[in-house]
Write a sequence for this structure.
């Protein structure tokens, strides 16, 4: 009677512990699973005619074997041992029997081979679900639990294959468990095989539809790539034409300014040298044309993207072999192998073409960004130059000649008068 009382107390303790502290997200390893495991362990122990002490220790181990989930998910067996040791120790349970209980709990760790009959019974009881009609429903609960706590996600095809492999690789250790669950286990394996075939057919059908969808608009895909290439090349040509136009215009303006300033001996140059306030707008215009032409030249300057040779990059399709800046940096043999691989694999071909378009876009983005700076400098510089010229004209004063210069200008026509006389 006392032995039955401690098992009952253990079940009530585990019930309260799970109700108060176990996460509600544990939809598989909860009180229901623990109750079924303890029930199966007791039935198998009775079939083997275990002694009352062994049967009691087996039931206690079954009740405590998943209590560690309250603290942790992975490695919960050690926590379960702590819960069982603490609870049984408080009730002065014999030390040698506590050790037997904890050994049974440790035997439930996945991948360990049971060493004693008690170990085999509790492991079979813990895995009894595979030999029940409720296997598929509870397996889905385990799938959800793994997604939450272990971040393991499976497609329907992957899960069906995983379950099939698990059923085929798992067997019961005791003869009694094999007799009790073998029939339903065989039915579950057959049902899982049928489900796996359905998922395989479904996956093949989806792949077929995807291939058909990809093959039907083949001409459309090629047209898209052709138009995209043409558009990028046209935009590149437009950018180069705009850069050439800006270079030519600014070069002409710079040559005119430099020629104008160098005519020191001319009348215009001598007069201009006396009005140095005009040097500000002229110098501003010169700096504007210089800055604009520099950025225009940078925009039109050819740029070739390249990479450091690494065979792993070629195998991982991270290199665009269709661009000369890339394939000229690799040996001929690797280039030939890469091109043959591209021609065999449609996905690799499209990947290289997409990569090529991407880098064309990068070059275009750089061209237009620098060209925008060149035009902005030219526009702002012209505005400032016009403002500076306006200010210079507004504050322009006629130069005052000294008396000697005035006498020279008045006496110059005298010889003409004498000659006329």
């Amino acid at each position: 009677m006392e032995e039955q009382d401690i098992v009952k107390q253990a079940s009530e303790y585990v019930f309260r512990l799970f109700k108060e502290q176990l996460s509600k997200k544990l939809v598989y390893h909860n009180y229901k699973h623990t109750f079924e495991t303890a029930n199966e362990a007791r039935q198998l122990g009775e079939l083997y005619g275990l002694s009352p002490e062994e049967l009691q220790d087996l039931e206690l181990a079954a009740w405590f074997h998943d209590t560690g989930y309250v603290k942790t998910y992975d490695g919960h067996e050690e926590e379960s041992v702590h819960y069982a040791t603490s609870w049984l120790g408080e009730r002065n349970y014999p030390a040698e029997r506590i050790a037997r209980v904890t050994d049974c709990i440790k035997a439930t760790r996945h991948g360990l081979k049971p060493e004693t009959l008690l170990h085999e019974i509790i492991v079979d009881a813990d895995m009894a679900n595979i030999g029940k009609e409720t296997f598929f429903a509870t397996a889905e609960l385990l799938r959800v639990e793994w997604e939450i706590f272990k971040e393991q996600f499976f497609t329907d095809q992957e899960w069906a294959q995983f379950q099939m492999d698990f059923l085929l690789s798992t067997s019961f250790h005791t003869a009694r468990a094999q007799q009790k669950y073998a029939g339903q286990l065989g039915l579950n394996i057959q049902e899982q095989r049928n489900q796996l075939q359905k998922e395989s057919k479904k996956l093949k059908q989806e792949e077929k539809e995807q291939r058909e969808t990809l093959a039907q608009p083949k001409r459309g895909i090629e047209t898209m790539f052709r138009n995209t290439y043409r558009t990028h090349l046209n935009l590149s040509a437009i950018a180069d034409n705009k850069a050439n136009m800006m270079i030519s215009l600014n070069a002409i303006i710079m040559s005119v300014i430099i020629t104008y300033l160098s005519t020191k001996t001319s009348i215009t140059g001598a007069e201009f040298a006396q009005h140095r306030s005009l040097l500000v707008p002229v110098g501003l215009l010169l700096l504007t044309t210089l800055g604009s032409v520099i950025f225009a030249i940078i925009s039109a300057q050819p740029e070739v993207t390249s990479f450091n040779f690494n065979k792993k990059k070629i195998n991982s399709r991270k290199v665009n072999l269709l661009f000369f800046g890339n394939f000229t940096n690799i040996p001929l043999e690797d280039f030939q192998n890469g091109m043959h691989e591209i021609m065999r694999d449609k996905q690799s071909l499209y990947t290289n073409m997409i990569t090529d378009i991407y880098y064309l876009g990068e070059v275009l983005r750089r061209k237009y960004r620098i060209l925008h700076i060149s035009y902005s400098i030219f526009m702002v510089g012209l505005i400032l130059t016009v403002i500076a010229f306006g200010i210079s004209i507004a504050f322009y004063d006629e130069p005052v000649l000294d008396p000697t210069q005035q006498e020279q200008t008045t006496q110059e026509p005298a010889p003409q008068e004498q000659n006329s006389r």
Q: What stands out?
A: Residues 313-317, 405-412, 414-421 have pLDDT under 50 and may be disordered. The chain has two domains: 2-205, 218-395. DSSP finds 18 helices and no strands in the chain. The CA atoms of residues 275 and 398 lie 9 Å apart.
